[in-house]
Amino acid sequence: MTKLKLNLACLDYDRVRPLMDGRVQAHGIDLNILPMRPRETFPRMLERQEFEASELSLASYTILKGKDDKRFVSIPVALSKLFRHSCIYVREGSGIKSPADLKGKRVGTTQYGSTAVVFMKGLMQDEYGVRPEDMHWFMGGLEAAVQNPLLPLKLPDKIKLEFLKTGVTLEDMMEKGELDALFSIYLPPSFLRGEKHIKRLFPEYKKAEQAYYKKTKIFPIMHTVVLRRDIHEANPWAARNLFAAFQTAKDLAIDGLYDTDALHLTLPFLLDHIEENWRTFGEDFWAYGYDANKATLEAVGRWVFDQGLSPRIVKPEEIFDLSMDGSGDLEPVVRRSAIPKV
């Protein structure tokens, strides 16, 4: 039987590496993984559908669903998860002492519709009553040129968004006092340099994130995996087999965290965090599938509408196929020895 050849573009994550090196294979699929950073993958997939499968921004996929754009089919894999409390910065002297103080303020961001910023805006709305229309938005580069939106923006009039002019950067505006806050996907260089004019809105962000998860059960998913629809319709079995393979690869990566016979460089620093993750999230702290991520999917589907990015609320089952939870029709081929947890 001839295998289906698929090129898949994604970052070289530890939970994907067993698929890259052949320890895990998907039945019926000859998978060629092209390692590349999301900032390169996303535009190439969204604009030209360049790959048969790829990592993709969860918000972008949800927005496309809301617009009834059927170019892609998602596999319920959460390649990237990250709380974003630590990514909200405020300028010293802006008068922002608490999240509620963001009302009426000037806020910069590199991508209004990115998944990270969608989650930051959703956090502000649900937990602190600060809606997107309560802030004046400025979109541009941190230190370089203005970035184009991943998807075209057609925002309602209530959303105030300005694009930075050539030669103007968010970092400069923060330093000059022309911005009050920054919702940043990346660590601002000025913050890394320890400059006094910029600080985090949540100094103890880890405690804030733990409290947020305990209350909401939302563990923000940044990136998922999609198949082009033409590939999916011609090979309807492929999505389930890929999902099973991604699940096994992730489980294998997690197994490696407990291999204390041969310490990895980072393991001595990770053991406490692993135990803490268990206490917070349960044993499957990096869960794939629909059921474990339903609260997160419900939130992002609602927020893309509230933030003017989608013409309607997108239901969780439209984002991740609940039928893929549990065992697949075909198990992935796995070449490994079981590594016992310690």
Content-based structural category:
alpha/beta
CATH topology of the largest domain: D-Maltodextrin-Binding Protein, domain 2
Count of helical stretches: 12
Supply the CATH class of the largest domain: Alpha Beta
> How many DSSP-defined strands?
13
Low-pLDDT runs = 336-342
Tell me which oligomeric state these chains represent: single chain
Q: Going across the major beta sheet, what is the strand order?
A: 9-8-7-10-6-11
What does this structure look like?
The chain has 2 domains: 4-81 and 220-334, Periplasmic binding protein-like II (D-Maltodextrin-Binding Protein, domain 2, 3-Layer(aba) Sandwich), CATH 3.40.190; 85-216, D-Maltodextrin-Binding Protein, domain 2 (3-Layer(aba) Sandwich). It has 12 helices and 13 strands. The protein has 342 residues and is an alpha/beta fold. It has a 6-stranded mixed beta sheet with strand order 9-8-7-10-6-11, with helices on one face. A 5-stranded mixed beta sheet has the order 3-1-4-12-5. The chain has helices at residues 17-20, 38-48, 58-66, 115-128, 170-176, 189-192, 205-216, 229-234, 238-256, 267-281, 294-306, 316-319; strands at residues 4-10, 24-25, 29-35, 53-57, 72-81, 88-91, 106-109, 136-139, 160-163, 181-183, 198-200, 221-228, 333-334.
Q: What is the gist of this entry?
A:
With 342 residues, this protein is α/β, with parallel strands linked by helices.
Key features of this structure:
342 residues, alpha/beta, D-Maltodextrin-Binding Protein, domain 2, 2 domains, six-stranded mixed sheet, five-stranded mixed sheet, 12 helices, 13 strands, globular, disordered C terminus
